[in-house]
């Protein structure tokens, strides 16, 4: 907020609230104050200061949000200026400082200092500082506790006249900017307060959206680090079990050479019966005979054999869940609705199911038409399941980028007709584009029939097993494909 805009906003507030009574002081959140003023009807001034907010003063539009536990400064304001009549709301010289003056025996003033990045509020009674939201520097007060205004950087600044101006907002690259004069394709407002409130609200929404995205992605990345450690632990255990499969060779070697093994021996070295060039050093239990020692090695082998598929299944499930989490990083990055983000966060954190009326499920899978064939692509893991397991017929062709998170894509073939090569390539390009390989010039895409795509109980959303497959390599960055994609309006 610059000095010119502050002057225009305060002029409107002064006209609106001079002579009004301050009926309520609420702190919506830390540093966000709402001053409700009665002038025949009740309206509210919004004052925002704080570390995470741009400092603001303007009229509040819409319903007042609920208040939180008030700070000690809020309680101080209630003690000294609540139910006091407002004398005026003015700007200090040409600076970004607003002063709300009250008609009371203490000549109370509330100074809203917007000159610094986080802003400040200072309560003055009888010319002395009663308190401030942020601690004041020594340069901001005298020895007898009077407030010292900062020196203006602009000595000859001419403040504007509202009659010559037009409050409006213009969207540029998805973000809004305010102007004090009419601009082409602008959104005009009836007051500077209304224009600025909408500008601040848009900025806050953008900030909240980006903060929420960073928070969820950070949480996902922390989970992915845990997954990576779990994978390494499973791989370590699997490696040990695979090494234990040599116990079968040891058992067979002992039985083949049973007459050569001395009683009560603690170990023996013999050529491996499966590979005579390899010498096995076999440890023995001296309390057992050679046959019993051999049986013990067979038991170890059987135990390893049972454990290997269990660990392999755990490893695959971990990798599937890893892919599931990775797929949501891209979805979150592209999401522009904070309610949808909160819903995704609930699902990822607490396993809450996404309802049919949710933001995530209201949208449908992408549908493309190419050479009279319908190509369908899922937007998230849940939609991938829907595309692969519900929408697809057994003879529909199915595609997915190999070895990376991405969309499940099908070519609908209602008459069981085989799509031409051009359609197959286009479906593969769509699968590659909606994957982590979208910026690569070569992406390998799995190609199979939907009947070969299966999902076992307990698998993560979007995770499937493919029984039979071929592959096709495509370039999702080629010009012709990207130009075609732009025209799809998806």
Could you provide a short overview of the structure?
This protein is of the alpha+beta class and 490 residues long. The chain has ten helices and 22 strands.
How would you describe this structure to a colleague?
This protein has 490 residues and is α+β, with helices and mostly antiparallel strands. Among the domains are: 3-151, Roll (ibrinogen binding protein from staphylococcus aureus fold), CATH 2.30.310.10; 363-486, no CATH class. It is built from ten helices and 22 strands. It has helices at residues 3-17, 72-81, 192-244, 246-256, 290-334, 338-350, 359-362, 381-391, 421-433, 479-486, and strands spanning 21-29, 32-38, 42-48, 56-59, 85-91, 97-103, 109-113, 120-125, 128-132, 168-172, 175-179, 187-188, 267-271, 279-283, 366-370, 373-377, 397-401, 409-412, 443-449, 453-454, 465-466, 470-474. The strands form six sheets. The chain has a six-stranded antiparallel beta sheet. Helix 3 packs antiparallel against helix 5 (290-334), helix 3 runs parallel beside helix 6 and helix 4 (246-256) runs antiparallel to helix 5. The chain is elongated, with a radius of gyration of 36 Å. The chain starts with a helix and ends with a helix. Mean pLDDT is 86; it is low at 353-362.
List the helices and strands and how they pair.
Layout: H1 3-17, E1 21-29, E2 32-38, E3 42-48, E4 56-59, H2 72-81, E5 85-91, E6 97-103, E7 109-113, E8 120-125, E9 128-132, E10 168-172, E11 175-179, E12 187-188, H3 192-244, H4 246-256, E13 267-271, E14 279-283, H5 290-334, H6 338-350, H7 359-362, E15 366-370, E16 373-377, H8 381-391, E17 397-401, E18 409-412, H9 421-433, E19 443-449, E20 453-454, E21 465-466, E22 470-474, H10 479-486
Antiparallel strand pairs: 1-2, 2-3, 3-4, 5-6, 6-7, 7-8, 8-9, 10-11, 10-12, 13-14, 15-16, 16-18, 17-18, 17-19, 19-22, 20-21
Helix pairs in contact: 3-5, 3-6, 4-5
